[in-house]
């Protein structure tokens, strides 16, 4: 069924006809006659209420949006069968209310939409009004979310935001500085605090892998090493030592974690993934005990299969968790026709006590419901952790990837040489983050997903 005429008709007639405030509805269709009806993000919008009338054969539905969904801002998804009537009520921070109703019809000759305009402007109550003292400033939904061990009063609230518009982001993050080469990681990088590996450009954070160039005159040593053991394998040594040359990482990269901690939340990360064999991005909620929710798993390889013949290269998106050193990858995944590093995408994890739901660009693709995993993750608060690494047993396990796909072993001296050889064809050796948002959650999130 064709929907191409609808967007044009809405753009022409469905504009709030007001000089001081205009909203232009947008409609994007998907397969099987589903479509997204959305309002662009606007800082003046406080909340949006959608009411959909399906006709006599189906009960009406309503959706209340307090903050925009990443990927589809102020949006609802509906199935267009015959005719729908959608009413939209927009509340601004200036306490104005705008309402709009449109009828969306489907037919063999295309789709058409009609709309009407109505504006209702409210006035704020007087400061001494009893109602001012009794009523909350915003509709509040109960939440069990925590930030920095403190409970969030209401669900569906933005509790953390980072957009990397300037250098102020550094006040909210800490560097991880250590080698990832020793057991159990077997990753070919040292995480360092260096501007070549971590920088802001074009309002985005770049975490980039670079050759380390460690040598006898420049031995591997991290002065502010964050490894708890402080051993030479992880932190290096000022004095050259041939016995430790095998522990010199072939690459440097960057890893940071948020100072703020969270428990039970919705995290949305807009990111562009690295492209290149054995590159791996880290987008996680991770506790100090090492337990982690892996918001997105995208391997840098453009072509890669596991021992079962499953495509696990960069065209396929996975998610999972790490508990007690054991990795758990969700059974479900999603594939697209090109590497996820070719474009920016919005990656979401909704962490609830009873489940963890994973989404990309507003679409659910995986879920964790294992009670043992959920219970272990729920024992502690989690930081946001971001990094770009190379190789690794957690990311490219020897037991899963056969030697015809990976011509080196993680726990063998060939690791560094194998990674150096692959790097000659790296296309995009960095993780780029445009924005991070964390929201408190509520039972209402069941309807958002």
From TrEMBL:
Transmembrane segments: none annotated. Gene3D superfamilies: 2.60.120.200. GO terms for biological process: carbohydrate metabolic process. Keywords: Signal. The keyword Iron does not apply. Residues 176-444 form the GH16 domain. It comes from the Eukaryota. PROSITE patterns: GH16_2. GO terms for molecular function: hydrolase activity, hydrolyzing O-glycosyl compounds. The keyword Protease does not apply. Residues 1-17 form the signal peptide. This is Blast:Gram-negative bacteria-binding protein 2. It comes from Drosophila guanche (Fruit fly). The lineage of its organism: Eukaryota, Metazoa, Ecdysozoa, Arthropoda, Hexapoda.
